[in-house]
Request: fold
Amino acid sequence: MASNLTIEQGHSIGMGDVPMLGDKRMLILSLEDTVNEETTGAVVIGNVEKVPRTTGFFGIISVAFNLLSSWLTVASSMILGLDHGGSVTVLYGLIVVLFLYGAVALSLAEMAARYTTAGGQYHWTALLSPERNKRGLSYCCGSINAIGRVAMIATAHIIVAQLVLAIVAFHVPSYHIERWHTFMLYQANNVITALYNLFILSRAPWTHNVGFFIISIVCLAVTQPKQPSHEVWYNFTNDTGWQSDGLVFLLGLINPIYGFGGLDGAVHLGEDCFEPAKAVPRAIVNSLVVGFITTFFFAISMLYCVRDLGAAIRSPTG
Reply:
């Protein structure tokens, strides 16, 4: 069903005419009273009157950073980087990925500044694609995005289950991890996370990142002796069987890349924040920067605290 749209001049147009708007026109869904200075020059798509705007600039950065959780995702898959290049891949790979995802972040920020929509990628595809292909391309883009989001959430929860069981196996050598143990703990984690998001996160959002400070500070304080700096910053290991160190380094980038897979999180909050044409682009870029800084610090802390990287790689649980 085509939606009626209203622009500044007061004329009604169809959804298919969105790309034909001039750069300085305002697009609002049937809401003349929402045309104001904060969105001048941007295209606002969505029934914004029914969505209460309760999130400020710093709030949306915090939400975007929590959606990324870069330090946690990199930590949970660090074995992939250590197994493909060692500490060099983990640390310098983060710097490489910062520039790669920086280009992605700037592209998303540009689109979010011009077309403010909680739909994000699939909506932009519908707006900017050729007329005869926009429906099919938009459907494909939305489907890929939805499937990717489900897959990423599933991997995040299964990794938590694997980490918990690995801790148990480390302290109880006689314990043998069964697949159904992992599956049951995975399902329990789904339930706990849902309850946390529903009843705790809105009242105590700081709890989401308390683990970052506890793990980083405690590990640095109690670990003695620490790894020498040469092992942390210059130790490149290639035990994969591949002859090319460059190829091994590229394979190991899956570790830092995993930490920024949810970079578009702020885009989907465009209808919840004040001045979305400004706040969302800044939140995208700032969440990348904050995510990199916290992840880089965390990775350095862990690499100095792991006494034997080879033993960690060869352990049954990784």
Q: What stands out?
A: The first strand starts at residue 5 and ends at 7.
